[in-house]
Amino acid sequence: MLTDLGEDAAAYCGGTELLLAMKLGLATYDHLVDLKRVPGLRGIQRSNGSIRIGAATTHHEFENSSQIRAEYPELAAAISEVANLRVRSVGTLGGNICFADPHSDPAAFLTAIDAVLVCQLGDEMRQIPAANFLAGPYETVLAPGELLVAIDLPARRDFTGLAHLRMKLTERPVVTVTASVTLAKGAVSAARVVIGSAASTPVIAVSAAQLLLGASAADVDDRADACAGEAAGCVTPTDGGEASPDYVAHLIRLHARRAVRRAFDIASTAAR
């Protein structure tokens, strides 16, 4: 149906973002295709070692899932801060990601943990890493008529700490930072730092994360400082945002340092 209707149609589940955009005159469609009752698009279950989340699963269902709270409590906590309870009871995780709002909270976290987005067009299925799904503000790599049907969260690696921090000036985050730190024999063996909300799509600060490799409890504070400074330099803030580029860079440094330190502490606790 979506393929036949082409650009005159849009798919939706909760519609919290889409309908608002249409009311404001920012988007116009002749047809809206409601996906809420499509079999298989809702629910959370184990699948080949991953946790598979149906794209139509609401934020409220997600944040209260015992499976998510057990394996990714940080993500459940991040989702619990999206908008308000009324919006979370209707809005869906898949809809949030597909709307591709640059200030989306989940996108940075899903990128940090190497989540995979499962998409379908007719009988064809493809898997897209979360890091490659967003093409720009309000734009994804989905083909016409293609749907996001599920999000796969990989099994959490042993001795891995995660931290997700955000800063809001008004309604939406102006900066989000997700840090992932994995320890081996007391030192950082793998790390990732992802900056969201500051640019058009989440930024993986590769050079910043490399500065953490080999860090131990003795020097993690200095390494976190260096990482945070490098992370701020990896991002070119979006023009016309709520804050000046210099202030955004300051917020990135501040939150990246805190996120890295918190992720290290969580990993250290798990390694004991």
Oligomer: single chain
Q: Would you give the CATH topology of the largest domain?
A: Uridine Diphospho-n-acetylenolpyruvylglucosamine Reductase, domain 3
Structure classification: alpha+beta
**Class of the largest domain, according to the CATH hierarchy?**
Alpha Beta
Q: What is the ordering of alpha helices and beta strands?
A: HEHEEEHHHHHHEEEEEEEEEHHH
Q: Count all strands and give the number.
A: 13
Number of domains: 2
Binned, the helix content reads 25-40%
Count of alpha and pi helical runs: 11
Envelope shape: globular
Give the termini distance in whole angstroms.
Answer: 54 Å
| Physical arrangement of strands within the biggest beta sheet | 3-4-9-5-6
Overall radius of gyration: 19 Å
Strand content: 25-35%
Compose a concise summary of this entry.
The protein has 272 residues and is an alpha+beta fold. Helix content is 35%, strand content 27%.
Describe what this molecule looks like in 3D.
This protein has helices at residues 2-5, 18-23, 59-63, 66-71, 73-79, 85-90, 93-99, 105-112, 206-210, 220-233, 245-271, and strands at residues 9-12, 31-34, 44-47, 50-54, 116-121, 124-129, 134-136, 139-140, 147-153, 160-168, 173-184, 187-196, 203-204. The model has no long low-confidence stretch (mean pLDDT 90). The N and C termini lie far apart (54 Å). With 272 residues, the protein is of the alpha+beta class. The strands form four sheets. Strands 3-4-9-5-6 form a five-stranded antiparallel beta sheet, with helices on one face. The protein folds into two domains: 36-153, Uridine Diphospho-n-acetylenolpyruvylglucosamine Reductase, domain 3; 160-271, 2-Layer Sandwich (Enolase-like, domain 1), CATH 3.30.390.50. The protein is built from eleven helices and 13 strands. It is globular, with a radius of gyration of 19 Å.
